């Protein structure tokens, strides 16, 4: 890999064109850094027959009192961004030295949802949105009357959508506004397994595996930071730092002290809607000994209506497996382009902002352990 002169690999060298290539780059970066990889092999195979896995690397003292988790591909196809950031982090010798000097270990969790990454889907092999899957399945699932009203229009029987589907959506927006529409569609729903943003009826393989990883590697730290990479919301190339935690003023203040301009779904300042079953809840449940501070780093790609249209098309395609090859290929390319901007400028923006956010997280953790 070439270097951009700042200690990390050149941005273009960090990105891949497939899950298999992304995984190979991550494994090579870990090997070059002299780090062991703990691979949790997925039960399914990839699009090209390749092995799928949640790959885990600990960079630093496993018993460190401060731990920064960096994770990619919670939403499958969004993994091109997060994987590239992880490759850049592993290849940045100065950043790794900074972490070691500060007494902070870094836990890389590569491809939380390797199935979706490989197959260019946002969901897991169970057709579940992993970031809506973390809630108590012993209790009644959250209701979403708005999605219920929109379900047949969002993923209709035919594609492209018939005029009446768009009319239903437009009526809903006229009554509830654009923000109300976004909330209804993306908050998470638990009644339509053949729809979008489905939270599942049971814990997914990825959820269970992530819990096992945290129990093994994050059960001793006293300070736990987390950066989880996402794409698809906001202005193209801008990395929005979204508060990922409980609606607690003390925790929010700490997040803002670490990362500066942070938005929140709790006060409506984020481009994201308020969600059900969010992944960050696992930090509180599996790492109760630690004080948790986390963000989602969300990079904009295309305008939200285009991203949503691609998601709807991809779900329709899953529901109609006999679709002809040409139409299938066009829809799959559309979904990848909605979450991965394969352009040098966007890639450079992702790596620059990712490194900056990681440095901020390391500084915050270092200050936290000094203050204890």
From TrEMBL:
InterPro entries: DUF2817. It comes from Piscinibacter koreensis. This is DUF2817 domain-containing protein.
